[in-house]
Amino acid sequence: MTEWPTAAHVTRPKDGADGKLLVVGIGPGRPDHLTQAAREAIQAADTVYAASLYQEFLDEAGLLDDSAVIESRREAKERQARETFDRVRAGETVVHVSGGDPNVYGKSDLLVALAETEADGEIPIEIVPGVTAALGGAALLGAPLSNDCCTISLSSQRREQAEIDEKLAAATRAGFVLVLYNGWRSLPEALSIVNEHRAGSVPVAILEDVGRGDRGRNPAGETVTISRLADAASELNVQTPGTLVVIGTEASRVLEPAGDGRPFFVTPRGDTTPFHQ
């Protein structure tokens, strides 16, 4: 049996013990997308760290009434993490809100790592999952992720562009449906790489403010636009940093609904689906 090194500071919460840190995924943002576990965790917290947009959603649901609320700031994330550890050591239950799911380009890795390297004493940590944008977006589209899929962040904030390009090319060649996060400014270059390895006829969807209706950052509210890969760079107009991009495979299909509404974007699971008969 493999032996792993024992953490110096990170531990699992114990029933009845005072003080713990919960990293809570709240899904796309609207209250109706919160899991029951996320609701209960936020309601039970002594202190909640959340970005201003997420505070609006949670306040609308009446989940912040009994908590001390602190605006989560990207430029102060390490300082706020240390503050959190002090609060936990003092017996508080502290929630850090993460949009979507904490493990999908969220906050869990940073908080766990800083607890191990920066905290004084043991820090009980629990991760509460949420609906990530890929799943919320897939529901809006229909069934684009029914076969193998891969998420890739286009953000070069913490890694070199060459690494992103290599992963993008490899995932495209491997035949995955691609779900691209953080594609605000670098989407044209990413589409160019995909174009080298995938037919120009495959469908591409741009989704902005998934699950937020008119409460997000896009002036047009929640939008879904579908194009072909060959035309996507010129037809798809990305407005906000939170944009999600779904790129299908040669097996993917787009169907206009029999009635009104957005098209269905479908990637069959295999050769036995009706599309292949």
Query: Radius of gyration, Cα only, in angstroms?
Result: 21 Å
Structural classification? alpha/beta
**Biggest sheet details:** 6 strands, parallel
Helix content, binned percent: 25-40%
Mean pLDDT: 89
Q: Uncertain segments of ≥5 residues (pLDDT<50)?
A: none
The multimeric state of the shown protein is: single chain
How many helices in DSSP terms?
8
C-alpha geometry: globular
Protein described:
The chain has 8 helices and 14 strands. It is α/β, with parallel strands linked by helices and 277 residues long. Helix 3 (77-89) crosses helix 4 (108-118) and helix 7 runs antiparallel to helix 8.
List the helices and strands and how they pair.
Elements: E1 10-11, E2 20-25, H1 36-43, E3 47-50, H2 52-60, E4 68-71, H3 77-89, E5 93-98, H4 108-118, E6 123-128, H5 133-141, E7 142-143, E8 149-153, H6 161-173, E9 177-181, H7 187-195, E10 203-208, E11 223-228, H8 229-235, E12 244-247, E13 253-255, E14 264-266
Parallel strand pairs: 1-6, 2-5, 2-6, 3-4, 3-5, 7-14, 8-9
Antiparallel strand pairs: 9-12, 10-11, 10-12, 13-14
What would the keywords be for this entry?
8 helices, 277 residues, six-stranded parallel beta sheet
Provide a short characterization of the protein structure.
By secondary structure, this protein is α/β, with parallel strands linked by helices. 29% of the residues lie in helices and 22% in strands. A six-stranded parallel beta sheet has the order 1-6-2-5-3-4, with helices on both faces. Strands 8-9-12-10-11 form a five-stranded mixed beta sheet, sandwiched between helices. The chain has a three-stranded mixed beta sheet with strand order 7-14-13.
